[in-house]
């Protein structure tokens, strides 16, 4: 349900889709299946990368989706328009700063499990563990400039 909710908030969007800390790859595979292309996962755990590639192969998407062993802090996100983040709350403040610095205004960030504490979501879906939050970077930047919604990070 969490995967379905996250991708529902990206429905109809175009541009590069990335999952930061892509885990077992299910979000990337499903994003590709729903027409979000290119679909890329960044993950450091080699076992999870193997599982992701197996999942893509099993779905018939081998060579169509990418799973890269890269540190999300070192990846340039300036060409990403759809960003999926299912990461711990402690990572959100420094990640917010990176996303603000690198993403284009047209980008949308979807967070699962935990929202970005100082950003106001443009939409949300689900409840409890299935809840996801969408943030449109243009709105996040506008709120940051006007001082509404707390600090930008």
UniProtKB/TrEMBL annotation:
One of its GO terms (biological process) is regulation of mitochondrial ATP synthesis coupled proton transport. One of its GO terms (molecular function) is protein-lysine N-methyltransferase activity. The keyword Transferase applies. One of its GO terms (cellular component) is mitochondrion. Keywords: Methyltransferase, S-adenosyl-L-methionine, Transferase. Belongs to the ANT/ATPSC lysine N-methyltransferase family. This is F173A methyltransferase. It comes from Rissa tridactyla. The lineage of its organism: Eukaryota, Metazoa, Chordata, Craniata, Vertebrata.
